[in-house]
Amino acid sequence: MNRESFYLEIGSIDDDLIQEASEAYGHKVHRIGFIRLAAIAACLCLVCATVLFNMRRDIIFYNEAPAPLTAKVLVPSDETTVVLTLTYQELFDYYGLEPFPDVLSGLQRLEQTYFYVYRSPKDTIYDTNVLNYCSDDGRQTLTIMISKNGAEPAAQQNMKKSRIDGTSVVLAVSDTPSGAADCWAEIYGQDIYFRIVASGMDESSFTDIIREIVQLQQ
After folding, report:
1. Which neighbouring-strand residues pair with 72?
2. pLDDT tens-digit map of 5-32
3. All residues at 6 or more sequence positions from 212 whose CB lies less than 8 Å from its CB, including other chains
4. Were both Cys, which of 82, 102, 108, 179 would link to 119 (CB 3.0–4.6 Å)?
5. Which one, of 136, 90, 84, 91, lies nearest residue 109 by Cα?
């Protein structure tokens, strides 16, 4: 077939056939583009899920610390300091938290009638309050100190941090004069400082308690 015959044959093709072929090609290109976009979206979802999983994955590390290791409590001693008395519910309203349960990982909260917040003459608020838990046989004890402004951290800067349910935590174990080990933790959440000290329990049990406390704040 020469060039002239080829062009004549092309010219004789029905316009409807050309239109159908063009539309079929367009649908094919559109379908390929959609598949590519779907694949890219799936990859992005996988990357995001992996990042979120790694952020939530627990990293547990217990530092070894000398005992005793206590936080410094700052309470104004001026005679003009005003002492505010709070009930248990008012205490957690003040901190903007949900009240801790009466039973925490099998430990019973000891009854405390009042809690205190101190206000200096310059209207500076100092607060350091403690919750006490104990097992039925008295062999396990747990002390939780809560403060917005009134305690300085005890953890040292070179201590390695852990991560529990996405929250940064400092965990440590300290030897005591009796030869037993105390576990303790420091948590910073919602601009509130928590210091938790436990006696008579192993690191695994203490970690479970810290996880429960972290989840209460989420």
Report:
1. 152
2. 544 444 555 566 556 655 665 555 555 5
3. 104, 105
4. 82
5. 136
